[in-house]
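Saturday, quiet lab. Running sequence design on the structure tokens for the scaffold JK sent over.
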């Protein structure tokens, strides 16, 4: 599993101030079209997921529902956050690629 690369990218993005966290912050940034990738933890509430994914679709912003809020928060040096707005295009592409790779590995291992 390539989760270590994913962790590294999340940590680098956080240290370089290219991640903003929190639901309300994400809504404002989505409205201003500053988000390149929205990462939503799997364990956030259903209404939160629904509202954020609809905003992303409306504003043509990539999003992924992935991971646990506690793990993602720890990677970025935050506490109990479930919504992460990646602001940098290169970080967004790298993180998105790693998430897709991890999820495809899960599907293959679950299908076997």
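Result came back. Writing it out in full:
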């Amino acid at each position: 599993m390539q989760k270590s690369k994913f962790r590294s990218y999340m940590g680098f993005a956080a240290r370089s101030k290219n991640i903003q966290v929190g639901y309300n912050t994400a809504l404002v940034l989505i409205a201003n079209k500053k988000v390149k990738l929205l990462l939503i933890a799997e364990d956030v509430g259903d209404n939160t997921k629904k509202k954020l994914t609809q905003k992303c679709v409306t504003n043509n912003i990539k999003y992924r529902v992935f991971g646990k809020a506690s793990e993602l928060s720890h990677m970025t040096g935050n506490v109990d956050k479930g919504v992460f707005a990646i602001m940098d295009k290169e970080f967004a592409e790298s993180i998105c690629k790693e998430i897709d790779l991890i999820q495809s590995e899960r599907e293959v291992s679950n299908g076997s």
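Notes for JK: Helices lie at 3-15, 23-31, 46-58, 69-76, 89-111. Residues 56 and 62 are 7 Å apart (CA to CA). Ask whether to fix the surface positions before the next round.
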